[in-house]
Amino acid sequence: MTIRNEIPEEKLFKVYTFNSVRKSMSTVLKNADGSYRMFSKGASEILLKKCCKIMTANGEAKVFKPRDRDDVVKKVIEPMASEGLRTICLAYRDFPLADGEPDWDNETDILTGLTCLCVVGIEDPVRPEVPDAIKRCQRAGITVRMVTGDNINTARAIASKCGILQPGEDFLCIDGKEFNRRIRNELGEIEQERIDKIWPKLRVLARSSPTDKHTLVKGIMDSTVLEPRQVVAVTGDGTNDGPALKKADVGFAMGIAGTDVAKEASDIILTDDNFSSIVKAVMWGRNVYDSISKFLQFQLTVNVVAVIVAFTGACITQDSPLKAVQMLWVNLIMDTFASLALATEPPTESLLLRKPYGRNKPLISRTMMKNILGHAVYQLTIIFTLLFAGEQMFDIDSGRYAPLHAPPSEHYTIVFNTFVMMQLFNEINARKIHGERNVFDGIFKNMIFCSIVFGTFIIQIVIVQFGGKPFSCVGLTIDQWLWCVFLGFGCLLWGQVVTTVPTSRLKFLKSAGHGTQQEEIPEEELEEMEDLDEIDHAEMEMRRGQVLWCRGLGRIQTQIRVVNAFRDTMSPYEGLETPESRNSIHNFMNTPEFRIEDSQPQIPLIDDTEGEDDAPTKRNAAQTLPPHSTLATLPSSPNQNNNAVDRVIPLHKDSPKISGYPESAVLPACPGSPLNSLETSL
């Protein structure tokens, strides 16, 4: 602080700031006699290469030979780095007045001929909670890699302390120079195949630049070595980390030490700059995903049973066993109460005992589908048994033969009450979606769930015993109530039976809720892709987007034909409609314009410059279409890019007729129209 007070920043002659290329910073001071002195500090092994002298213990500068530099590296730098210390070299250089004014812009000449003063080892201790957080990530199936600008020995020591590197494991720990040598070919170009040979075993990347970090992130995301594509998360705090944070699936920026650029490029900001917060984010993310799946598992079971019972009962008995008000109460249980009960489960450590979901993981897994169908079979069996044989079981009058406006019957009240009881107990089953047997595990930690189940049971008692005609219910006896509760409790017992059945044996079960899959593309397009020897993943995504875009164009053409056919029926106004509005994609759904004097044609909206610029961005195609004027000049070549559907409905009257399409499906020719240019490009 004393030196800083004596020499404030405004007295500094020139400053060479630190960056990832220099890996050092230098400050130039002007002496009283007009000469200059430059002080430098930076990465020890890099700055030592620029030193030609070294200060001895006596304060004398002696020649610093390459052999001496190797001795300093082996005896000073490597022992410090192996203990996790970050080594920094301090050096200086004098610029005598007799040598004239130096060329300060020529860094190559300025940052050479230094005199080494010392090598300092700085300890940046690992936070106590970091090793445990990394261990929890690894247990959760998350691979932690360290990308740093430190010395490779320092990085290896810190990684060992954190638990990223374990003794006896065959993992890579390389620097940025070796990394680029392995991933680039003879021409210096990055090859994905070379990256795929490195990243699965890479754990530490030292002396790396921001470009190396971005290259590694992109290489892992684009890799197809493993069947499920990797989901990459990146942490960073500097401005240079912006590209990697933006490229990653999830970017974590530091809220305290992070720059504004890093925060802007990230998706999540860690307000405490703590790595353990990432583990909490993973837990909450998995918990939200599982909560949605739990709710869907419960809701779909109720929907399947309620729809089949209402439809079948109405067809056979001419009256639905579940009345309208009763269905409203069931819907309230199914939607509002169930969402509160199942979506408020707190995250637990058990969420970190399994691997993460894949990029295209279905929302409804095969295990969930087994539970939905299995419980639906049990509930339908019980309901139909009570519906058609309940009067004999309980020795009561049948409700199937009651007149239309007859008072409520005990028969249908038992059916309704049993249905609700089964939903209450099945709500407990829905808490587990991965085939766990103990459905009561942690149930009392969620007081909202317990309160909703208990409250729903109390309200159901009030509705049955005192609901009367509004709810189409009559009071039940204790024995009848016990039977209803017992049949509902049977859902828990049946759930154990369903869990016992292996999901792998049920080949007919299909998962649901996929993301963008290959099934969305026609089979002929997939065959063409498979015939290619080598295909890039980005190119495949581009082709999928183009196919989907062409499908949208086909739908627009169909809508245009329908509207044109509708307008042709409006013969009294046929001569008053402007021809331009007939050929405009944006105006084909508008009301026809009626004018007395059609002096000047109106330009369609799609011909506007703003509309052309916005149109490509609203589609998810990987390829941006050129402007309207460019499209019109392209040569006609059907499916020349091999990335669109093979059949496009012709837009002109003089086009050859296609079998299966009527003549009315052919639009009038308009060489300057957008559809004409689009067809020409396709």
Summarize the structure.
The chain has 682 residues and is an alpha/beta fold. The chain contains 23 helices and 13 strands. It has helices spanning 2-6, 44-47, 66-82, 107-110, 129-139, 152-162, 176-183, 192-196, 210-222, 242-247, 260-265, 276-317, 324-343, 366-394, 410-429, 447-466, 478-500, 523-531, 537-568, 579-582, 609-614, 628-632, 674-681; strands at residues 14-16, 24-30, 36-43, 51-55, 61-63, 85-95, 114-123, 146-147, 172-175, 202-206, 233-236, 250-254, 268-270.
- Please compute the radius of gyration using only Cα atoms: 37 Å
Helix content: 40-55%
DSSP strand tally: 13
Query: What sort of overall outline do the alpha carbons produce when their principal axes are compared?
Result: elongated
Q: How are the strands of the largest sheet arranged?
A: 1-2-3-6-7-4-5
- Annotated CATH architecture of the largest domain: Up-down Bundle
Broad structural category: alpha/beta
- CATH homologous superfamily designation of the largest domain: Calcium-transporting ATPase, transmembrane domain
- Structurally, the number of domains stands at 4
Unreliable residue stretches: 515-538, 569-682
CATH class of the largest domain: Mainly Alpha
Task: Please describe the topology of this protein.
Elements: H1 2-6, E1 14-16, E2 24-30, E3 36-43, H2 44-47, E4 51-55, E5 61-63, H3 66-82, E6 85-95, H4 107-110, E7 114-123, H5 129-139, E8 146-147, H6 152-162, E9 172-175, H7 176-183, H8 192-196, E10 202-206, H9 210-222, E11 233-236, H10 242-247, E12 250-254, H11 260-265, E13 268-270, H12 276-317, H13 324-343, H14 366-394, H15 410-429, H16 447-466, H17 478-500, H18 523-531, H19 537-568, H20 579-582, H21 609-614, H22 628-632, H23 674-681
Parallel strand pairs: 4-7, 8-10, 9-10, 11-12, 12-13
Antiparallel strand pairs: 1-2, 2-3, 3-6, 4-5, 6-7
Helix pairs in contact: 3-6, 12-13, 12-14, 13-15, 13-16, 14-15, 14-17, 15-16, 15-17
